Structures are given as C-alpha cells and as structure tokens.
Inverse folding.
C-alpha cells in the first residue's frame, strides 16, 4: 500500500511502495532529528531504525546525559523545545538554581527540570546494570518516537578535544562552554575504537534496504558512530545515501567547520563526501548551489544529486528525505539485487 | 558573656553562662529539628553538635535521601516547609511528574524539585567517594544551620520492618506508604550494629558538657543512633537529659506508639524512660500531666522533671530546651566535676 504523504515542496516522485521499507539512519542530534521528522513524513510506512551518536554523552552532577539520543527522542516524540532544537519545551530551572546555591551544577550546560528527570531515570537504570540500549528503549516507551532508537554502543564513549594549547576537554565543554573557540588540534571519540556496537545495530544495518546519513556533523556526530568497529563495514556493504550539512562552503547549522578544520578537511560539500569516502557513500545529496560538486573527480563512484537542501519546515525536509530515498532506490536498481 | 534570648514563656532561670557551652544532641527528624530551634534560641552562645539518625535513609530513583539530616538542616537553615515540617517550602513537583510519566519515581514518597536537588548533590558527592559526614558538611555550608550536623555513621544503615505477615519492608515504606499499618513484628536498623560512628561523633559526645535527647521517636530515631557501637557507651558516660515524646500515653506527633508496640514497650512516658535505661538517662523531662512518673519505681536513678512539654511555638520550645539545660546543669552540680 502506497501511503506516502506527498510533500507540498517539489520533489522527485518515489518509485514503488514505501510501506515495510527498512531504513537505517546514523544520527547525531538536532540536524538528524529534524531530518528524521521529514523522513517519517516522507515514508510513513517505513520501518526506521536510528543508530544514535553517544560520543556527546557526558556525566553532569552525577547524572548521565545523552544529548543526541534525547534530541531524537524528544523531537520525534513531540517533547522538544522547538525554539532551541534541544531540551524540553516549557522548561523550568529549579534544579539548576538549587545546585548553583550549593556551589554545584554546571553553569555552562544548564539542564531544565523536565530534562533532569530523563537523566535521573537513565542514571538509575544504568546503576541497576541495565545497558544503555535497554534504558533507551524504556525511555522511548513514553515518547513513542515512531522509530527504533538504538545507541551506537552500550559501552561508554566520550569525544574529547585537544586544544592548541594542549588542554584536553570533553567535546561538550569545547562546544558549549568554549563555543568551539580555541583551535582544536584533535578530536577523538575516546573508547569508540574499543567499543562494541549495541545489540541490534549491525543487524539493523544489514537488514536495511538502505542506509541514510542525515546532515549531521561528519566529525563529532557521524564520525564516532563509524569508528565503532563493525559499523562502517556493515554500512559500506549497503547502499548509503548521505545529505550534506555543508551548503555553499559553510555549515547549515552549528560549528562543523571548526570540527572539519581540526581533522584537516575543508568545509565544502565535496570535501566532506570525499572524507566519508566512496567505499561508504553511494549517493550524496547537495544543495543546488553546490551542484558543481557532481563534476569533482575526487567523488568518483559517488552519485551526486543537487536539490534544495535547507530544512526550512516539515514539507521541505520531507522533500529532502524523499529525494534521499529516491536516490537510494535508483542506485539499488542500477547495482542490482546484490548491491 | 550571657547572651541568652529570654523566652517569653515561664521557664526556670538558667544558672551561669551558656556561651561556649558544648551541647551534643542525638536527633531524629521533625521533632528533633523543632526542639533544636528552641535550643538555639535558649542557648545562642552554645556550641551545639547534632548527631543525626541515618536509619531513615533510602535510595529513591537512584538518589540517596537522608530525611532526618535534611529536616534538621532545612529547619535550622530556614528552608523547611513549615506546613509539613519536612521538605522545602514553596516546592514544585516537575521531576516527580516526569518520573511518573516514565513509569518511574516513587508515588508514595513524593519529593519536590528543590529537595531533589539536595539529593542530586549528595548522590554525586557520595559517588565520588566522599563520606556522608563530609557531604553533609558541604550541604550545610549553604544552609548554615548554626549547629554542627554529623550523621551517626558514614556507613550505610537502613531500618527495616518485618510485618506480622512476614513481609520485610524499608522503614519508610512501612511509615509513609503503609502509614505504620500492619503490625510490625520487629524493627531493626540494618547495618547499625556493624557500623562505625562517623568521624567526630564520639569526640562530640565526650567533649560535650552534657547530652540531650529531644522528643524524637525512641525506636526508629534515637534507637538506631544508640545501636552504633560506641555511641551509647560514650553518652552513658556523660550527663544525659531526654525529653519525652509521649504525653498522656500518646505520641505528641507521628506514630511512635506503633514502633513502641513492635518492640514490646508501653506507650507511656515512664516506659520510654525505662527503655532508655538509668545507665543512659540522668534526667527525664515529662509533661505536667505525666508528673506521677516521678514516683515510678522503675525510674530509680533518673531525675524526672514535669513541665509544659508541648512545642507549640518557638518560645514554648525554647522554654523546654532551657529546662533541659537547667536540669542537666543541676544534675552535673550534684554529681560533681567527674559526673
């Protein structure tokens, strides 16, 4: 049954049925969550599994905070602060104020009371010995995000940044407290290379019709996921379509340029695709202003499609997601049943 | 320097100077906290050390809650809910509501948001390996309760109740959830007999001019404190004056009768004093309606004084505290310098 809600935005027609289609998405936070809303609208009958980045995770006031998982969960579950793009809507800050009165808390990373409750629940379950994947499943029972949300790993992974002055800080501290100022010398998802994928991750990739990379930060969101042994290999064996988070030489949102510079990659749609590599990527969605990327010799083997790529609203985002699906299906048809 | 604020209530005159006097109080929760407010008013120049019961402590939603320590800290620090006698004033319940939405939380023990922040701070510090006595000191830096507040022990102690049907529950569950219904077969402060007194506890008792027991529950508040090895012996070596929490055969507040029945002690001022024992108690303050207790042969060796014993307001409570001090001083004078 073809149940797709046709976006108002001009979009390529989708071939075949989408119901029952299995799509696995490797996801960061805000950008991924917005893309996923569009993907759900574009393919309402699809079974979507989201493999979420946990490199941003941090322990604050003794509570385990998983910003990317929560952003996806809140966004798809209708609890997100639409103004911020992260955290809960209609928040109060009693806990943060009280912690400050005790000389505690984390002034540069203020969590709202509702958000704190999520972290209390998570920390309690983790302390009971339950793995993060199970904890995430329990939290999602409330939010019903309409996707299966898996952390990339149940093992603890934390991205750390070494600054030019030699200081080593948690990614969140560099990103949120220092606003990505202070030239980063290196960015490493500590623990990722030794981690095991969470239960179901490799299977969700292997069983997917295709894999989509949303316009998340390639260094600190998608990068840590691909660093967990087995995930990149599993994805590379599938048709993978990614959407560029770089438009016209600048990140659409956030400070991806600071991250790309730190790992020696130019902030351009071509350079990011080359960074992912033709062994992983089959299709690369870029904005219309970057259509020249299609002729870049460094992207040989990657099919580039240029479309309007700004996620302005749900309709435009659904159109982008529909294009990603369409591109993936076209590539698969060309590659044949074993592609 | 004599700096006592003279209570408006009729009260025996206090002899000598109170400034620099060292008083150590073994304390439960609400009753003790109210008594301590009166004691501070009656003896503003005194150095008061409070040894707090930790048998009520419980882990809720993964956070360590110390109800008695917090009630003393909040009450003396001006943060208590004056209506309830426990918890913070002007509370909100966002966290509790959110935990419930996740299917978590503890519906029968609802904590407010401000209170949650205290438990988050405490749990974080405990997880860092800091002992409860140090954690309590840090929390008190904010509240400035005007007394030195020590937990009876840094070791984990939890009072458990065995019900007549054989069920074994945490004291809080019996007290708060079951409203002390269901005949208690036994009440045991688990871990107390194997615990060590917290640093400073034995010294505070040994160095005190005298020890006061406020009208706390003799079974579940004072009982666990006296069970920690060394504390009863240290107190017995000093002049100890206690105030009865039983007036006219009934507890002034709470359900002490249910606790006393469980350990086979009659709910009367005489029986409670006999339960404490003449080896421990030197003086016993009872209400005027219980003045006949003075002639009870089972209380030989304990000096009984009958006064108005209801803590109606700060003035009446200060008068009770002043009587306790006066009785202790009179007993000391009689016993001589080594009493």
């Amino acid at each position: 049954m073809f149940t797709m809600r046709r976006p108002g935005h001009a979009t390529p027609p989708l071939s075949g049925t989408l119901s029952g289609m299995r799509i696995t998405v490797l996801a960061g936070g805000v950008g991924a969550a917005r893309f996923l809303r569009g993907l759900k609208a574009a393919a309402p009958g699809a079974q979507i599994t989201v493999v979420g980045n946990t490199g941003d995770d941090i322990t604050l006031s003794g509570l385990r905070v998983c910003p990317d998982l929560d952003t996806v969960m809140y966004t798809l579950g209708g609890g997100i602060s639409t103004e911020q793009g992260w955290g809960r809507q209609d928040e109060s800050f009693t806990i943060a104020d009280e912690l400050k009165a005790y000389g505690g808390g984390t002034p540069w990373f203020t969590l709202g009371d509702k958000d704190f409750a999520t972290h209390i629940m998570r920390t309690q379950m983790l302390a009971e010995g339950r793995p993060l994947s199970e904890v995430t499943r329990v939290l999602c029972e409330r939010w019903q995000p309409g996707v299966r949300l898996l952390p990339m790993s149940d093992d603890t992974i934390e991205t750390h940044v070494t600054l030019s002055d030699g200081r080593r800080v948690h990614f969140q501290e560099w990103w949120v407290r220092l606003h990505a100022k202070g030239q980063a010398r290196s960015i490493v998802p500590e623990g990722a290379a030794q981690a095991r994928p969470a239960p179901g991750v490799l299977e969700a990739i292997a069983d997917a019709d295709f894999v989509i990379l949303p316009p998340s930060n390639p260094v600190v969101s998608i990068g840590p996921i691909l660093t967990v042994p087995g995930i990149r290999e599993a994805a590379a064996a599938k048709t993978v379509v990614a959407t560029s988070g770089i438009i016209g030489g600048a990140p659409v949102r956030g400070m991806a340029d600071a991250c790309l510079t730190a790992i020696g990659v130019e902030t351009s749609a071509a350079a990011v695709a080359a960074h992912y590599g033709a062994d992983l990527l089959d299709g690369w969605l870029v904005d219309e202003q970057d259509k020249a990327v299609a002729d870049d010799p460094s992207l040989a083997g990657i099919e580039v499609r240029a479309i309007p790529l700004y996620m302005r609203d749900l309709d435009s985002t659904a159109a982008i997601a529909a294009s990603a699906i369409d591109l993936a299906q076209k590539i698969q048809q060309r590659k044949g049943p074993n592609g």
User: Anything to note?
Assistant: Chain A touches chain B through 26 residues (CB under 8 Å).
